[in-house]
């Protein structure tokens, strides 16, 4: 793939993915009181944004999105950081949704299925703004890996992680590699506890 094509994909696909997820979160938001204060459920800037020039060459990161960021210009990276921060706001809404459901006494399975559905619905909205070629490539990858064009189902994740609580935790994680590339850290909003950082890999 040419360097210009890679930069084009990075400019269009990466922001679309995260903006659409943030938009979905606003519709699914639970009351803010379910989360302990404003110190959680969002981004923390932990490092300056890289000003290195676009590098469309071979990428050493196993994270495809990290490679896309490295192929961006500094200005495009700044846009991606803003988009990532809006994505973190969605994760905060998911945290608050989880807290509200726990306060209502909902089961671990109900909570997990809700959170996975929020993630997968966000992907569906996102792809409405992508080119047919980009959408097809993403859907083919997920179809081959999960048998589902939107990604893993709640049942597949339960089989992988072994418990519904673990599925919920996975659904609300943020990729440390992607966040670090943009100089960010996500501060989650666990129910009734001090803010902490979930560091394991997010859902595929």
Walk me through this protein's architecture.
The chain has 204 residues and is mainly alpha-helical. Strands 1-2 form a two-stranded antiparallel ribbon. The chain is 58% helix and 4% strand.
Strands ordered across the widest β-sheet = 1-2
Number of helices: 8
Strand content: under 5%
Helical residue percent band? 55-70%
C-alpha termini separation:
24 Å
Q: What is the C-alpha radius of gyration, as a whole number of Å?
A: 17 Å
Oligomer: single chain
What's the count of strands?
2
Average residue-wise pLDDT: 76
Helices and strands, with pairings:
Blueprint: H1 3-27, E1 42-45, H2 64-70, H3 74-103, H4 108-127, H5 132-146, H6 154-161, H7 164-171, H8 176-181, E2 184-187
Antiparallel strand pairs: 1-2
Helix pairs in contact: 1-3, 1-4, 3-4, 4-7
Relevant terms:
204 residues, mainly alpha, two-stranded antiparallel sheet, 8 helices, 58% helix, 4% strand, globular
Briefly, what is this?
The chain is mainly α and 204 residues long.
């Amino acid at each position: 793939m040419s360097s210009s094509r890679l930069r084009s994909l990075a400019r269009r696909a990466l922001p679309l993915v995260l903006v659409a997820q943030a938009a979905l979160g606003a519709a699914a938001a639970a009351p803010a009181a379910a989360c302990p204060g404003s110190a959680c459920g969002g981004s923390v800037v932990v490092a300056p944004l890289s000003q290195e020039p676009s590098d469309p060459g071979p990428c050493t990161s196993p994270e495809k999105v990290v490679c896309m960021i490295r192929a961006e210009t500094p200005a495009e990276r700044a846009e991606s950081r803003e988009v990532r921060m809006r994505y973190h706001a969605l994760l905060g809404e998911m945290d608050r949704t989880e807290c509200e459901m726990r306060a209502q006494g909902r089961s671990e399975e109900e909570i997990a299925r809700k959170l996975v559905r929020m993630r997968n619905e966000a992907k569906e909205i996102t792809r409405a703004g992508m080119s047919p070629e980009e959408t097809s490539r993403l859907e083919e990858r997920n179809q081959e890996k999960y048998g589902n064009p939107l990604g893993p189902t709640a049942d597949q994740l339960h089989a992988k992680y072994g418990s519904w609580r673990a599925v919920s935790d996975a659904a609300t994680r943020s990729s440390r590699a992607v966040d670090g590339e943009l100089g960010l850290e996500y501060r989650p909003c666990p129910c009734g506890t001090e803010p902490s950082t979930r560091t394991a890999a997010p859902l595929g």
